[in-house]
Amino acid sequence: MLFERAKLMQLLYHSLPNRKKHVLPGKKVVAVEQDDYGVEVACTDGSKYSGDILVGCDGAHSIARRLGMPGAPTAQPFESKFRCLFGVAKLVDGLEPCSLIETHDKDVMFQLLTSETQAFFLVYEAKGPEEADYKRYTQADCEALARKYGAHAIGRGGRAIFSHLWETRDRADLFDLGEGIADKWHGGRVVLLGDAVHKVSVLAKRCFLNPTGKGGIVADNSALKMTSNHAFGANCALEDAASLTNGLRALIQRNGSPSALHYGDVFGQYQKERQGRAKLCMLFTGNYTRFATWQNWFYKFACLYLAPAIGDQFVADWCFSLIPKHGVKLDFVPEGQSKVGKVMYSM
Ligand SMILES: Cc1cc2nc3c(=O)[nH]c(=O)nc-3n(C[C@H](O)[C@H](O)[C@H](O)COP(=O)(O)OP(=O)(O)OC[C@H]3O[C@@H](n4cnc5c(N)ncnc54)[C@H](O)[C@@H]3O)c2cc1C
């Protein structure tokens, strides 16, 4: 399913009971303090909130990770070897609707997700060895990158080039992509989840040889109604949330007023359950990005000759599906009439 993150957040927000009480927009946490009895956060507007535990799901620059956990390293646990130009444009001639289309080349990969009328584009570029780890980019940087690759083919047959898409864009932004896993996921009454503890850089996809022979391979999933392609970042965060919720719920059922020690045990179990899978996702997607941008001769060879020979369907069914099929689920919510497909859950 392809949808915008804002839509998912809207759906979750409007499904939440008592949302006005639980969600306080416009707050910025600037300090975290914990002791044997609880944890307290302070915000820029002077307000303070206290509780038994703090779940830091505050992204890659997490303040909960930097300030909330005793003995936590202050350095960023992620490195950034790729940047990504992300945007939304009109569907232009030469691109198939409702498809996932990729074009691979040395140091750059174009990834397009198309609907009947729009194309979401992601241009991944390998950063030079001398470039600073994390950087903020301006609109001028976006323009410069778009100009650099303006004449590059981006679809089957080479009819569409990147500038066609760029000229019809609604919006675009340039980010550094982080990769890495934090060693410490919890400390005392503070626990972290999502991008605060792991960054995975790229979406997974299927591949075909570019028939033009130029600019590497093109991937396209228009032949299938449903694929096991998987995007990992937010999905990893959702699995973290499920795993932690399962643990906390079981704890509260056993013990109505848990101590910091009890919480620590649950947080430890949660890290144990999730860290391995998060690492797998990171390696999987990180290696895919390097493969698709031909970071060494073997990746280039594999990308141009092995992957097309093995076949797109095989890769989707036997490689990408390995990850979602073991996904963590809430263990107390009955599933009802869920759809049944070729790839079964196997927890
Ligand atoms: C271009 C791009 C495309 C992507 N595509 C996909 C995809 O297709 N599928 C997928 O699964 N993942 C995708 N991801 C990854 C995904 O967006 C992230 O992994 C996911 O958003 C992580 O969720 P999170 O809740 O951990 O962190 P975030 O989404 O970063 O949320 C953190 C929240 O904490 C808030 N916050 C931060 N600091 C403070 C503070 N001091 N006080 C109060 N609030 C604070 C922020 O405002 C934000 O709301 C993509 C990422 C990028 C950059």
Largest sheet: 8 strands, antiparallel
Bound molecules: flavin-adenine dinucleotide
The percent range for helix content is 25-40%
Percentage of residues in DSSP E strands? 15-25%
Secondary-structure content class: alpha+beta
SSE order, as H and E?
HHEEEEHEEEEHHEEEEEEHHHH
Instruction: For the largest sheet, list the strands in their spatial order.
Output: 12-9-5-8-7-6-14-13
Count of domain modules: 1
Low-confidence stretches: 202-230
Mean pLDDT: 85
Count of separate DSSP helical elements: 9
Distance between the termini: 22 Å
Number of E-type strands: 14
Any overview of this molecule?
This protein has 347 residues and is α+β, with helices and mostly antiparallel strands. It has one domain (75-187, 197-347). It is 33% helix and 22% strand. The protein has helices at 5-15, 19-22, 63-68, 139-148, 162-167, 233-254, 260-292, 297-310, 312-318; strands spanning 29-34, 39-43, 48-51, 54-56, 79-90, 100-105, 108-114, 118-126, 171-181, 186-187, 190-192, 198-199, 208-209, 217-219. The protein has an 8-stranded antiparallel sheet. A 3-stranded antiparallel sheet has the order 1-2-3. It has a 3-stranded mixed sheet with strand order 4-11-10. Strand 7 (108-114) and strand 8 form a beta hairpin. The model is unreliable at 202-230 (pLDDT under 50). The structure holds flavin-adenine dinucleotide.
